[in-house]
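Hey, I'm writing a tutorial for new members on how sequence and structure tokens pair up, and I'd like a real worked example in the thread rather than a made-up one. If someone can provide the structure for the chain below, I'll link this post from the tutorial.
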Amino acid sequence: MGVGRKKIGENLRRVRDEIAAAAERARRRAEDVRLVVVTKAADVEDIKHLVDLGVTDLGENRVQQLLARVEEIGDWLGRKRKSPAPAVRWHMVGHLQRNKARKVIGRVAMIHSIDSLRLAEELAARAEQAERTVEVLLQVNCSEEPQKEGVAVGAAAHLAEQICTLKPLHLTGLMAMAPIARDAEKARATFVRLREIFDDMRRDKIGGKDFRHLSMGMSQDYPVAVEEGATIVRIGTAIFQ
């Protein structure tokens, strides 16, 4: 059973207001922060309501659920708008296994979780076969937690350079996950570190002019992430609770 249309609308307004307030504190524009709503725990009817409220970016953590949601929401939009063209952009925000890389080609607008050369090469090969390009982010383990995915901080720049040699892939930024904590301030060091790595890469002209995204911040810490420069926040619980 879903959360309810009224509650989802209220939650969405609160999240957008908090993004705007954090952006103002950082002297940034709220429209420069993209909200990706992560739908892994959501009822399909609640997702449809979000789309009706104007949400255009949706994310999933698992490939199997991503594919099911892409098809279901796409079919619904096709019937609703008399057009096969999707009105939403899907994001793969969870860990992606190499053996599932081919399944997401052509179905997602962005993959946030590239963390190895082998995965990047597999994606590039599959994208080339499909005659497509794929927008990707490099996931960096800025918190240095052993259980977290992501390339080590010291290896990030080199891996980014390698990804940039793979023509079907379009590297447009970095992603990180902060430690889960009740106090959002404990996430700040992770976000500051990712921004520093990002700034170093831009200074060294890694990724070119389109290297512009910092995907960081989730339901428990997104205002801090926006204060530290996030251009994409990935929020699920705060919308669907």
